[in-house]
Structure formats: structure tokens, C-alpha cells
Amino acid sequence: MTRTIQTQVAVVGGGPTGATVANFLGMYGVDTVLVERNLDIIDYPRAVGMDDECLRSLQAIGLADELIKDMIQNVPLRFFDAHGRCFADIRPTTREYGWSRRNVFMQPQCEQVLRRGLDRFPSVRTLLGHDVVRLEQHDHGAELDVLAPENERLRIQAEYVVGADGGRSTIRELLGVVLEGVTHPRKWVVIECDNDPLDAQYTALHCDPVRPYVCVHLPYDYRRWEFLMFPGEDADEMLKPAKVRELLGRHVKDPARLNIIRARVYTHHSRIAQHFTAGRVCLIGDAAHLMPPWAGQGMNTGIRDATNVAWKIAAIVTGRADPAVLATYDGERRAHAAAMIDLSTTLGRILSPTDHRVAVARDLFFRGVTWAPAVKNWLLQMRFKPMPQYTEGVVVPDSRRSPAGRMFIQPLVEDADGRAVRLDDVLGPWFAVLGFDTDPAEHLTDAQRDYLAGLDTTFVKVIDSRAGRARRATAHPRTQVVEDLEGHLREWFTRHRARVVVIRPDRYVAARSGRTTLGPAVDRLRRLLGPPADVPDQEER
Q1: How far is CA 177 from CA 12, 23, 277, 345, 393, in A?
Q2: Under 8 Å between Cβ of 438 and 426
Q3: Contact call for residues 521 and 396 (beta carbons, < 8 A)
Q4: Could you tell me how many helices (H) and strands (E) the chain has, helices first?
């Protein structure tokens, strides 16, 4: 007999992206069912790099401070030539989004924290050991047939479905969405030990044509090596203990003393789904795109997907936005995911040449260009990393150089209690309107303020650290006041010639304005989000 569960959102896949979406939906109070085919968290080599944008998302769901305890922050990335000489040393110092740009972590530990985070939300149910076998959409939602443990059958009726079930996504297959791109012919052997023998506190890409490899210092005295396999080498043979010791023998004095805990062979892909949305179903993370690991952006790109789609689905099912808003997820995220795939593929081409002449030419090129200070700084600060800029979707651009569609900065501010906090901790989970040296609520009509209040918008007045007490006054009691401790907000508003900015729940700029243009910008935002829907009470669903 088939048991039926009704919910607002079904999330299929309990890895980092799926668990992040479920945490966001739980924070927004959305009735959610998380379906995961495995009973336990997978314990083998996977993602190890987390960037500042990803940590900012995890900050939004209240888990960043717990996760950061198990990370190594601000880890350099170094490229070495065939002679072991460093030709590129990337160590970004910027913290414009509130966190270090390069952080190293262990994915199983991260997933444990994300899973435990779901326990905070009574609106989220987790079904482990459950496998989706059927998906069907209709006008008002979707149905999932699920095979539960002991061959029990379950049917989930949801208004929306998020497919976060990895590179071999069942949801993508059931939708008939093609994953376009290439699978790279060369495979890589990944080896991890838990007694790190090296004093190298960085991530190293060794561009050695004899056998290119990567070496990563991990938390808790772990270390990872990744070695390129050559044509004709057998995967099973490469994983035998004697071969593993041979691979490590060129780089470690006594490989027999290492406690090898994992060794696997991986195939790399550069692929992207034809589209990220199909009706009421969205694809995120590896279900939507696959990329080589060299930029450390696979999971980070998936968390960006999760952060983008979560607030939109939550806004729709809670009546804050029209269902058509969901289509903007594909428009905003797919192009940037493709850019990340291109970056990762390009870094792999830099790393992996086995022709000595090509390797020498590469080394000479990088040694030449890094003499130029501008190029050196571009590399050092990771300016080569593509940053999202949404020109369509839920954004109100006003010029070619508008900051609308870009992520807003997150400096330290002083809150009303005199504490130094990250800006997002003041902005709240939904929209925010930030005015520099002005109360943004003062420049809106009653109807516009009421509309934003319906979105649970936070109003914030930013004052300069040199401002007197009189500048703290606000025209409306709901407006909070924060102090710009380090001058970063003053610099941002001055550079972008703005007095007010509307910030989306995912911390991207929805609109910038002056005092007199804020009202029209809010009206345009309202048209983009569409008319709010009548949502039934929980008891009626």
C-alpha cells in the first residue's frame, strides 16, 4: 500500500547543496521534505575548498561559525613548474564578503553540520534511505514515487521539487534534460592519508610533465594527493598498495609510514544541463553542472544555486512572489555556472600538459606576465574568478555600470547594542533596504512601505563612524541604525553614486537609487516579483 505525504517543497538529494536548500527553506518556514537515497554520509574524497560566497550563504542559515571551526582559513594556492619552482602564488587578502576567499574543509564533516542544522526546523522532514523512481508534473505541483527501506512505497505530493541528487541525477534523467559538454579522457588517482608528512600549509598544483599532480593540506593533519593517469594505466592496478606507495615515493621520504585512508580513481567532466528549470522542478549543484576540481568551485557553484533558488521558491509558496519568478533561476545561474566550468577546465589545461616543450612554454609565459604588477595582483587576489552579475531576473539595472545584479559587500558594522557584527547579521533573512546617511523608509510612500513590509523587509540607516548622535535619528521606528566601522560602506556608496540600495535575500543588489528614485525602483521590483498569491494556511494543505 502506498503512503502519501503532502508538502510544499520536496528536495531530492541530501548532499551539501540539497541540505543547504533545505536549511534555507526551514529558516523561511516552508514545509519541506528532504529525500536522500543513502542512509549514511558518504566518506570518500570529494570537495575540500570553500570560498567566501559559500561561507556567506552558510552564515545566512546560521551555520558558518560552527563550520569554520573545522576549516583552515585563507589557504594559499601555489603553482609549481617541473623543477619545483613556484611560478604563481595566489593568496587573496580581500574579505569584501565577510570571509576569507580560500578555505579548506572536509566535506563529510560539513555535511554532518548541515544535516544537524535541519533539526532546528519543525517544518523540515528528512527521509534517508529513500530512492525516487518516478516524477510527474501537473498544473499545481509534482508527484514523486519513492522506494523506501524494506520496499515500502511512498508518494510525495509537492508544489515544487528541487533536484540536488548529484552528477547521476535521477531527477534530471526523469525530466529528460541532457547534460551537455565533454568527459575528459584522462583519469586521476586521489589518495588521502591522516598523518600528514609534509610541512606545506598550502594547496599546490605541480605542473610536472613527468606526472602532473596536486597536493592539498587538509584539516586535522590530513593530506590529499591527486595524480594524473596516463593512457594504458589500469584503474584497479593504480589503487593497489604497492602502486600507491610508488606514486607517493617521489614526493614523500617514507611512503610506507603513511596511513592511507582513501584511494579512488576519478573521471572529470565539463558539462552543464540544457536548462536548470523544467516546470515546477529545478536542478542545482552537480545535477545541473559538472566541472573539474582545479578551481575548487564545484560545490561552491552548487551552494550559489541553492541560495538563489531557495528564496525564490520560499517567496512563491508563501505568497510573496508570482510563480513565474522561478524561471529567473535558470537565467541568473546557468551562465555563471558555465563560466565556472570554463575556468576549471582552463586551470586543468595549465596543470596537465605532459609534453615538455608545452610545459616549458607555459612556465616562461607565467614568469613573464607575473612581472607586471597589475597582472600579479590580478592573480594574487583571484580576480580571475568569474563573479556573478545578473542583468536579467529580479534586478532593476539603471545603467551599464550599475551594481544591480552583483553581490553586495559585507563589512563589519556596529549595531544598536554597540557590537561589531557582520552586516548580514543585521539585514535579516529577506529583502533589506540600506540607506547611507539617510533613512530609506522616509523616501517611500505608505503603500510602498506596506508592500516592503509584506516582504519582511529590513530597513537600515548607515552612518559614518565620525557622525554625531543627531545623525542616528530615523524618521520611522522600524529602521535600524548601524555604524560603518571601517569606511567600506561609505566607499561603496560613493563609488556607485548611490544613497540607497535594495538588497535581495541572497545578498545581491536588486536596485540602487538616490533619495528621489527609490520609490520608482521599488515599484519596478514589485512588478518583477509579480502579484502576491493567496496562500492557504498549513491546515488547509
Answers
A1: 16, 26, 10, 23, 22
A2: no
A3: yes
A4: 15, 26
- With 0-12 / 13-18 / 19 or more C-beta atoms within 10 angstroms meaning exposed / middle / buried, residue 319 is middle
Report CA 528 to chain centroid distance, whole Å. Answer: 24
Neighbouring C-beta atoms of residue 140, cutoff 10 Å: 8
The radius of gyration computed from the CA coordinates of the chain, to the nearest angstrom, equals 25
**Rounded distance between C-alpha atoms, residue 97 and residue 159, angstroms:** 33
DSSP state of 285: G
Q: How far apart are CA 522 and CA 513, in angstroms?
A: 10
For residue 337, the tally of other CB atoms under 10 A from its CB is: 25
CA distance linking residue 449 with residue 308, whole number of Å: 25
Closest CA to 32 of 61, 5, 58: 5
Torsion angle of C-alpha atoms 484, 486, 491, 493, degrees rounded to 10: -20
Q: How far is CA 539 from the centre of its chain?
A: 34
HEC string for 400-448: CCCCCCCECCCCEEECCCCCEEECHHHHCCCCEEEEECCCHHHHCCHHH
pLDDT tens for each residue of 151-163: 899 999 999 999 9
What integer best gives the mean pLDDT of the chain? 91
Query: For residue 356, what is its C-alpha cell?
Result: 615538455
Q: Are strands 77-80 and 203-206 parallel, antiparallel or unpaired?
A: parallel
Kindly tell me the burial class for residue 466, based on how many C-beta atoms sit within 10 Å of its own C-beta (0-12, 13-18, 19 or more).
exposed
Element (H, E) at 380: helix 373-380
C-alpha cell read off for 135: 516524477
Beta bridge partners, 263, equal 191
How many CA atoms lie within 13 Å of 38's alpha carbon, on the beta-carbon side? 10
Per residue in 98-130, pLDDT (tens digit) is: 999 999 999 999 999 999 999 999 999 999 999
Instruction: Answer yes or no: are the C-beta atoms of 79 and 87 closer than 8 Å.
Output: yes
Strand-pairing partners, residue 433, are 459, 502
Cβ distance 325 to 316 under 8 Å? yes
3-class secondary structure for 32-82? EEEEECCCCCCCCCCCCEECHHHHHHHHHCCCHHHHHCCCEECCCEEEECC
Give CA–CA dist 476/326, Å, rounded. 33
The confidence score (pLDDT) of residue 376 equals 63
Give which of 443, 503, 498 is closest to 476, Cα–Cα: 443
Q: What DSSP string runs through 466-482?
A: T--GGGG--SSTT-EEE
pLDDT beneath 50: ranges in the chain: 535, 537-541
Q: Is 540 exposed, middle or buried (0-12, 13-18, 19+ CB in 10 A)?
A: exposed
Q: Which three cell numbers stand for residue 309?
A: 533558488
pLDDT at 541: 44
